[in-house]
Amino acid sequence: MSVERVHIKRYPNRRYYARQLSKYVSLNEIEDMIQAGQTIEVHDSQSGEDLTRSVLAQIIVERHPDKMELFPTDMLHFILRSNDAMSSFLRDYFRHSITYLEYLHRHGGSPSLVNQPTHWLKAWLDCLTPNTTEDAAADSTSSDDPLVERVNQLDQRLRHLESRND
């Protein structure tokens, strides 16, 4: 997979120009880049506005309407009705869900994921806590934050469960 982002500018005539490729690209070509593992960023040529989400949504809606079934109609209604606080909650929820998807992608469809869901929890905890496990254990004695303390307790229980399964 490519780590480098492909920077694309959208011009007023709705044409897309990929700087690294030094050529105009179509939505189909942008989709091919993404499927090849590249990450794209699309910005408006005049305002500099980030259009990446809109372009990705356009590709999904136009070229993969079957993938829109990932979002039940009730959820789409809920998203449109949500206020700022609920939108923030949903944004965080989806970002954390990406952690699970990345973990599954890295480890494939291994049967251990089905039989040992504690691995999912560990991946999620690792995403939430910037400290290493050792640092978190050291911090747990001095922390006044109940959330940090609870995360540390869960991490210790998870390590204990993993050692029993090995």
Provide a descriptive summary of the structure in words.
With about 170 residues, this protein is of the alpha+beta class. The chain folds into two domains: about 5-70; about 90-165, no CATH class. It is about 60% helix and about 10% strand. It has eight helices and four strands. It has a four-stranded mixed beta sheet with strand order 3-2-1-4. The two termini are about 30 Å apart.
Supply database-style keywords.
166 residues, 4 strands, 2 domains, 8 helices, 4-stranded mixed β-sheet, 59% helix, elongated, alpha+beta
Per-chain topology:
Blueprint: E1 5-10, E2 16-18, E3 23-25, H1 27-35, E4 39-44, H2 52-63, H3 73-81, H4 84-107, H5 111-115, H6 118-128, H7 133-140, H8 146-165
Parallel strand pairs: 1-4
Antiparallel strand pairs: 1-2, 2-3
Helix pairs in contact: 4-6, 6-8, 7-8
